[in-house]
Each structure stands twice: as structure tokens, then as C-alpha cells.
Amino acid sequence: MSTDPRFAGPTPFARLAAVQGAGIVGDACVTVSLAGSLFFTAPTSAARGSVLLYLALTLAPFAIIAPVVGPLLDRTRGGRRMVIVVACVGRMLLAFLLSRHLDSPLLYPEAFGILVLGKAHSIAKSSLVPGFVKDDEELVEANSRLALISVVGAAAGGLPAAGLVKLFDDSSYALLAAAVVFFLAAVLALKIPRPAPEPEGETQLERQELHAPSIILAGSAFGLLRGSVGFYTFFAAFALKDSVFSLGVVLVASGIGGFAGVVIAPLLRRYMREEIILVSALLAPALVGLFASRSASTAAFAVTALLVAVGASCGRVGFDSIMQRDAPDAIRGRSFARFETRFQLIWVIGGLLGLIPLAKTLGLFGLALVLGAGGISYLFGMRAAGERVERRRRRAERTRAAVRSGVRGGIARVRRRWARQRGPAPTSSDPPEPHSGSG
Known about the structure:
This protein is mainly alpha-helical. The chain has helices spanning about 10-40, 45-60, 60-75, 80-100, 105-130, 135-170, 170-190, 205-210, 215-240, 245-270, 275-290, 300-325, 330-355, 360-420. The chain has 2 domains: about 10-195, Growth Hormone, Chain: A (Up-down Bundle), CATH 1.20.1250; about 210-405, MFS general substrate transporter like domains (Growth Hormone, Chain: A), CATH 1.20.1250.20. Helix 2 (about 45-60) runs antiparallel to helix 13 (about 330-355) and helix 3 packs across helix 5. The mean pLDDT is about 75.
């Protein structure tokens, strides 16, 4: 890791990173509390229905976040910072209310509100990052650091919250802890400086650049990874629900994989292209999942969770690198916000698929099949896109050559015509022309 002093002191990025860490700790406390109240305390069929309702509720906000929160972030200079402040304050209030309504129908709308505000915070954070770094290389490293903070924050918040739930046998204490953490995050968010204003609106050229094949293919590949994470999270949770030890092993493996992926990804980028990182992030867990489906043991689930988490972390950095390389500079923040919204949507859809009752072997095999097909499709898509770019380059070269040839030929014809119209120039040996006069 770099020892750049910009990341060491209370710089704008350091302040944003502190808010990110506090927000993740609070979200982890809420997740542990809801897991205890919605999942482990209910029979499998009832828990599946509760989580299905919860995930169904999470689909609604993204139809609003993309058209409403995105423009709000760009409309005012301090809009992104204010969204983070409001998201932290709102989650603080909702976590406190939720601690009193765990056995009430109000649990779902309040949990829904926490989720919406959490996603708005995530989108605003992604939009702020490009304004707090100097160049593209720092953007990639900054995103890697934020991802690492998220992994550490999830563990730092989840473990104490689980201890509170176990100690008091009451999930409300974890929610009260979350409220305190969200309050601290709101205070820290007020210290984030306003970024420089970005241009309003988009040009037609910028929209075309955002739809470049490299960005579209990378977005599809990482979206598949995000969906796979959502699917595997809930599929493994229900498949191993009757064995707390097995579920714990899988969770630990997933956490280790997320941490390892964040550390490995910047190192991989020094030796291979971003597209190769994304392909590897798809094919590696596919290969492991294929072998794991033969036994479907606890060890098989744990190794698959490890590789899926590593792939998701590496894929995140690979996608960010492609975005910072190919997306238009003027709308890079908005581009990150839009893709983040889509990725969260895909994660929820994958979670819904994970609720379908499947045999352990079938679920692991299906996951491996989808990831493998996605990796191969991405390879062929990159090849086809490269051939298209090469054909366009050759066509453009032929067009330029034809234009240059036509221009030169046209200039030559004009010169010849002009020379004929002027006629031959008079020489000094020609006799002077007689003048007529009166005599």
C-alpha cells in the first residue's frame, strides 16, 4: 500500500473514509439484529417467507433512487455530502424506532427505510470519491481502501453486535448500538468538505462514451458477480440453517475472501489488464463451485464462499479501473452512481433466487454454471468488441486515405484549370504590341 500523506491525515478522503467505516459498523449491527429476529428465531419455512418479504421490499427503492437521488446528487454543489448526513441521521432515528418494534408490523417499513438510506449513502459516497483524488491511479487505490474499510467495519460491527444479542438475548441492544454509531457517522459527515462543482447535464458524446463496449461488458460481468453474491448469501444461509457451526465457518471464509480480494486486486492490476482480472473473478469461483457441488459438504460451501468473495472483491476493483479509464471525466461520479444502483438491484434479485428451495448439490452446480458461462461470454464479448474496434479503425483509415487522395486530386485539377485559363506567360523576346494612334 502507498504511504501517500493524502490518505494519512484529515484530508477530504480521510474524512469520507471515516464516515464510510462508521456507516458500515452501524449497518452490520442492524444486519445482526434483523438476522436474529427474522431468521434464526423462526422455522425454516417462516424464515424464508420473512426474508422473501424483506427482499421484495428492497426492490422498490431502486426505482426511485436512480431517477431521484442521482439528479439530486449533481444538482447542488453540496448535495452529495448532504445526502450522506441525512442518510446517517435517518438511520439513527430508524434504528432507535426499530429497537422498539421488533415484534411489530412496523419492523418492515422501518427496516425498509434503513435499507433505502444505506443505499443512498453508498451512491453518494461513490460519487464523492472522484472529487477527492488527484488522478486515475489514486481513484483505483481509493476505492480499494474504501472496500477494505467496509470489510473491516463489517467485522468490527458484527461481532460486538452478535455479542450483545447473545449476552442479553435481545436484538434491540444491537439496534441501540447501531443508533449510537450512526449518530457518530452523522457528526463526522458534517466535516466532509464540499467537492468542486461538476458540469451540469451530459453531452451526446459523453453518453456515447458511457456506452462503450468495454464499460457495458465490464458492468455486465461485475453485475453477474454481484448477483452471485446475493444468491449464495441466502442459499448458503438456508442450506446450512440447521448447523450453526457450518454457517459460522462459511461466514468466516466469506469474510476472509472479501479481505483477501481487496488486498490482492491492486497487486494483480500491476501484472494484468483489468478485463483479465474480471474474467478470472468469474472463472475461478466457477471452477471451485463445480468441484464443490460433488460433495456439498461444509468444507465445499466454505471454499466456494471464499472464492466467491475473492472474485467479488477483485471484480469490484477491476470494474472501477475500467470505469476510471474509459468513462467520460465530466460525468464519472454520476456514472459510478448509476452502476452502483444497478448492481444493488442485481444483488437483491440474486438474493430472491437464493430463497428458492434447492438441493445443496444443485445450488452449487447452478452457481458454477452461471459464473462459468458469464466468464466465457465476457471473453467472447471482449474479442468481438476488439474486432469491431479494429474494423472501425481500418474503415476510418481507409476513409481518411480516400479523403486525402480526393482532396489532393481536387487541388491538382483546380491548379490545372487555373493554369489553362491564365495561358502562357509572356517572355522578354516577344515584340512589343503596336499602339494605334491618330496621325
